[in-house]
Every structure is written in C-alpha cells, then in structure tokens.
TrEMBL record:
Domain of life from the UniProt record: Bacteria
Protein name: Transposase
InterPro entries hit by this protein: Transposase_DDE
Start and end residues of each Transposase IS204/IS1001/IS1096/IS1165 DDE domain: 5-149
C-alpha cells in the first residue's frame, strides 16, 4: 500500500506504463527516465558499429561502444581521433552520435521553458532525419513529449 501524497512518478518509455500511471495516479507529474532515452542512442550506435572495419576484430567492439557512447570531452585524445575515423567511415554513426550529443545538451536545460525550447529545436532538426534510427527515436520522443519535458528537471 502506498501512503502519503505522490506528486511525481518516474518510468521508462513504454506506452503501457504511461497508461497505467495515468489510470492509477491521474494527477501526478510523469517523468521519463533519462537512462532509457540515452539507451536508445547507444543501442542504435551499437547496431551501426557492426559496419565499421575495426569492429570486425571482436576485441575492439567494447572499445568502440564505449568511445561512441561517452561524451567527447570525457575521452582521451586517441579515442577522440578514433571516433572521428569511425564517423567518416559510416555517416550513420556520425549522425547518431551528433543527435546523442545534441540530446545531452537538451537534457542540461534548467527550466521547463528552456527544456521546451531545446526539445523543439532538437525535434525540428531530427524528426524527419535521413537516418532511420534517429527518426525513430525522435518519433518516440515526440509521442511522449510532455513526460519528456520533465525528464531534465
């Protein structure tokens, strides 16, 4: 049994979860977990990484995944250089990586107004992107836009 007043609920992106939350707690603020949002991008990068020449060596796959998932400023110079090579080798990797870092910028918003503006800009840029993985992520975010806006706050 839940006691006390519940004002916020955090969940993943599953539409059924959103329906359950609104049915049980109709007046709470629903917040989407950032982890799952970032995971959309990292999984898309992992799928694309298979096309990279260096990834054909099995021991390199974890290194590639780690380098592509982290923020560029958190990488060593050598790892950043590899990232540049991989992005030149596969344009989809470049696009997904850029969209991920742009989303991280959106998530750094400190006010609801700022978050809404940044998200609107992100969606305008990526909603109909030529890279199918990005367009799919944008569609998911657009569908759950209200819950998403509370994610970064």
């Amino acid at each position: 049994m839940i006691s006390g007043k519940i004002s916020h609920v955090v969940s993943g992106f599953a539409p059924t979860m959103a329906k359950a939350i609104s049915a049980v707690f109709p007046h709470v603020i629903h917040i989407l977990d950032r982890f799952y949002l970032i995971q959309f991008f990292t999984k898309a990068l992992q799928r694309r990484r298979r096309n990279l020449e260096k990834a054909k060596k099995q021991y390199q796959t974890r290194l590639i995944d780690r380098c592509l998932a982290r923020q560029p400023e958190d990488l060593r110079t050598e790892e950043r250089e590899w990232g540049v090579e991989w992005k030149q080798e596969d344009p989809a990797v470049k696009h997904i990586h850029e969209a991920l870092n742009h989303m991280r910028y959106v998530l750094k918003a400190t006010t609801l107004k700022q978050a809404a503006r940044r998200l609107k800009e992100w969606l305008q840029r990526y909603q109909f992107h030529v890279c199918g993985a990005i367009a799919k992520i944008a569609k998911t975010v657009r569908y759950r836009e209200q819950e998403y806006l509370h994610t970064g706050l």
